[in-house]
């Protein structure tokens, strides 16, 4: 370390007082000023690095909690990856986007929406009834839906959707019939000793098929004595076939129960044809001889409803 001799009126850092002579440590002064410079350079360098890294996105903002959905399309050249791929396969062949499958609305929801759409542009009463029907359909209130349809069909201005109402009425009536809830066409009877399904059907003016279906009896099963059976109670069942419109209405106790699609031969005779217990006058025999054709599932239903004593009418319109 070297010293420079000089005289100073004031004593500052780095100076040593030796008697009346002040010795100044020049190298120490230089070292201290050099350290400050290095510190300033380091701070500047750190600031530059932080600015550079922030510009590259390394220090992003905190997520706001909202997820931004970015739509993407899967290129057509990508192949669909099977669902049963192994881990190694799926890691290398994952498609860039998965198709979104929309849930199909239920049948009841579709039907309710259809009735609500038909309410547009109608009178206040018609709109009220159609919206009531839509609510009943969506909630599964069968009795309310049936009653509302009958009120709508009684309004002349609803003729434009009368066929739609009639067909829906039939679907709802069939559902009510087998729902177990009280309906106007079904009563209960207690099986007595010596009663068979055929005897019960004859006594109540119904069919064997109806008793078996309403009570879940197999083809050869006979109910036990004391059992409660549900039986159809209508003595004025009528099946009216319309040749031109190609539909037929099943009437129970004078009211429409269900509407069916039918096919009628052009030369089919018009008039009334009773349904009896004779082999050639039962429902199937009558339909075949008169040139009336219905779907197999519909014929199975009609075997249940058209008991002996029912009437079959063919109308020209």
Question: TL;DR of this structure?
Answer:
This protein is of the alpha+beta class. The protein contains 10 helices and 12 strands.
Structure write-up:
- This protein has helices at 26-55, 87-92, 107-118, 124-139, 142-153, 162-177, 197-203, 208-214, 283-290, 296-305, and strands at residues 4-6, 15-18, 21-24, 186-190, 228-232, 238-242, 247-252, 255-261, 263-264, 271-274, 292-293, 311-315.
- It is α+β, with helices and mostly antiparallel strands and 317 residues long.
- Among the domains are: 4-46; 107-183; 238-315, L,D-transpeptidase catalytic domain-like (Beta Barrel), CATH 2.40.440.10.
- Helix 3 (107-118) runs antiparallel to helix 4 and helix 4 runs antiparallel to helix 5.
- The longest helix is centred in the first third of the chain and has 30 residues, at 26-55.
- 17% of the residues are buried.
Overall form: elongated
The SSE order reads: EEEHHHHHHEHHEEEEEEHEHE
Count the helices. How many?
A: 10
The radius of gyration computed from the alpha-carbon positions, rounded to a whole number of angstroms, is: 46 Å
Largest sheet: 5 strands, mixed
Structural class: alpha+beta
The CATH class name of the domain at 238-315 reads: Mainly Beta
Percentage of residues in DSSP E strands: 15-25%
Query: What's the CATH topology name of the domain at 238-315?
Result: L,D-transpeptidase catalytic domain-like
CATH superfamily of the domain at 238-315: L,D-transpeptidase catalytic domain-like
């Amino acid at each position: 370390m070297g010293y420079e001799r000089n005289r100073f009126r004031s004593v500052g850092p780095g100076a040593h007082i030796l008697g009346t002579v002040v010795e100044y440590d020049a190298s120490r002064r230089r070292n201290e000023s050099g350290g400050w410079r290095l510190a300033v350079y380091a701070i500047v360098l750190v600031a530059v690095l932080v600015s550079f890294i922030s510009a590259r996105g390394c220090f992003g903002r905190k997520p706001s909690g909202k997820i931004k959905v970015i739509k993407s399309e899967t290129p057509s050249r990508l192949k669909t990856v099977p669902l049963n791929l192994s881990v190694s396969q799926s890691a290398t062949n994952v498609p860039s986007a998965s198709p979104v499958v929309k849930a199909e609305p239920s049948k009841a929801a579709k039907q309710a929406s259809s009735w609500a759409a038909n309410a547009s542009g109608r009178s206040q009463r018609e709109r009220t009834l159609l919206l009531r029907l839509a609510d009943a359909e969506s909630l599964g209130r069968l009795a309310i839906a049936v009653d509302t349809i009958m009120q709508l069909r009684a309004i002349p201005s609803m003729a434009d959707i009368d066929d739609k109402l009639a067909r829906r009425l039939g679907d709802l009536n069939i559902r009510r019939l087998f729902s177990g809830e009280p309906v106007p066409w079904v009563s209960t009877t207690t099986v007595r000793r010596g009663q068979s399904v055929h005897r019960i059907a004859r006594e109540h003016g119904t069919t064997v098929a109806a008793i078996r279906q309403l009570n879940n009896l197999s083809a050869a099963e006979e109910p036990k004595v004391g059992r409660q059976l549900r039986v159809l109670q209508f003595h004025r069942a009528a099946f009216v076939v319309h040749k031109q419109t190609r539909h037929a209405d099943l009437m129970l106790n004078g009211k429409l129960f269900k509407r069916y699609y039918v096919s009628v031969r052009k030369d089919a005779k018009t008039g009334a044809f009773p349904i009896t217990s004779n082999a050639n006058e039962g429902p199937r025999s009558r339909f075949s001889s008169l040139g009336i054709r219905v779907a197999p599932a519909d014929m199975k239903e009609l075997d249940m409803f058209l008991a002996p004593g029912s009437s079959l009418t063919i109308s020209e319109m």
